[in-house]
Structure formats: structure tokens, C-alpha cells
Amino acid sequence: MDAAAREADTPAMRRVFFIVSILVVSVAGAMIVKPGLRTKWYFSADRAWTTHWPFPRGNGIVRDLKPLIRPTEPAWVTVEPSVTMLLDPDDYVSNEILRKGTWERESWAAIRPQLTGDAVRRCRRHARAVSSGCDG
Description:
The chain has 136 residues and is mainly α. It has helices at 3-33, 35-52, 61-64, 66-69, 92-100, 105-111, 119-130; strands at 75-80, 83-87. The chain has seven helices and two strands, in the order ααααββααα. It has a two-stranded antiparallel sheet. Strand 1 and strand 2 form a beta hairpin.
């Protein structure tokens, strides 16, 4: 590679580096400011990675980053259409829902007929008020 080609390539590389840096800082900033977003991102990245990674080696690389990312804050996650739950990654059942992206189909089939149109909204208001589950 001659000097002219290197000089022509430098501004393009600086632009790419600048754009990537802005993206990394934006994502990191959002994860610091909104810990629930960090939790949602971690578990969705883990699901996508383990689902689509084609080789047995390297399948758990996102899980290896868990101590660095620390997805420890509860997050509001849409589990089913029009069903949003406050999921705590320290709770076993919530962690399974976050990891799998869905809850047991049979359980939803049993619960869905009992939910009215505003039951989810009432539960969400109640959970925000007391930071626990919904009991009515």
C-alpha cells in the first residue's frame, strides 16, 4: 500500500472510528442511566446469541460477560401481546422468563380468560407503588 492510498484511507477510518465511538458511548450511557434497559438488553442479546450461534464453542459468550454487564435491576418486559411484567433477574421464575423470552403456554391459557382489559394497567400501577407483585 503506497502513501497516497494510506492518506486517502485515513479520513474514512477516522469517520468510522468516530461513529463507532459515539454508538458505544450512547449505548453505555443508556445502560448506566436506565439499569432496567441494561437488564432487557442483556437477556435479549443472550437469547439471540444462543439461538443463532452455529458452533458449540462460543455459545455462552454473552453469559461470560454477565459479571461485566450486571443485569441486576428489575425491568418491564412485554412477555405476551398486551401483557407487560416487571421481571426481577434475581428471582428464579422471572429469570427464566427473561432468559427464554416467554412464559409457559399452558399458564397463559389458564390466566388469559381471567384478565380484563384494564387488569394489566392496574397491576402495573400497583407494582410501581409497592415494587412487588400484583395482588389486585
